[in-house]
Specification:
With 121 residues, the chain is an alpha/beta fold. The chain contains four helices and five strands, in the order βαβαβαββα. Strands 2-1-3-4-5 form a five-stranded parallel β-sheet. Helix 2 runs parallel beside helix 3. The chain is globular and about 30 Å long.
Length: 121
């Protein structure tokens, strides 16, 4: 499988979860970049580097994932970037492209959400 060009930005503060996500994404041909909090994620996006999608944890140090999503959607240059929330919390956020529950959903559910919502090259 040929790698996808634009990376997926994974915003996750837990090392083990980041590691598993990066491995699963790599197996499917995705390149990923990591941010450990909302500020780092927003800084990466505002630097102009392309991404095809953001995988977002809601529980982050400092500003949480909900703050990140609000700020992203309020920025006209970034608002079109799709966000898949990957969290242990139940529920749905209206501005997220998809919501996948950590621990209860099969990895294929996350991968299907990525494929369905990522920006195509």
């Amino acid at each position: 499988m040929a790698p996808h060009r634009a990376p997926i930005l994974v915003i996750e503060d837990n090392f083990q979860t980041r590691d598993v996500l990066q491995r699963v994404l790599a197996i499917r041909g995705y390149v990923s970049v990591i941010a450990t909090d909302a500020t780092e994620g927003l800084d990466y996006l505002r630097s102009g580097k392309p991404v095809c999608l953001v995988i977002l944890d809601l529980h982050l140090p400092g500003r949480d994932g909900r703050d990140f999503l609000r700020e992203l959607k309020a920025d006209p240059k970034l608002a079109a970037v799709p966000v898949v929330v990957y969290s242990g919390d139940p529920g749905h956020l209206p501005d997220a492209a998809a919501f996948v529950r950590k621990g209860s959903d099969d990895p294929d559910v996350l991968l299907a959400a990525i494929e369905r919502h990522r920006l195509k090259e």
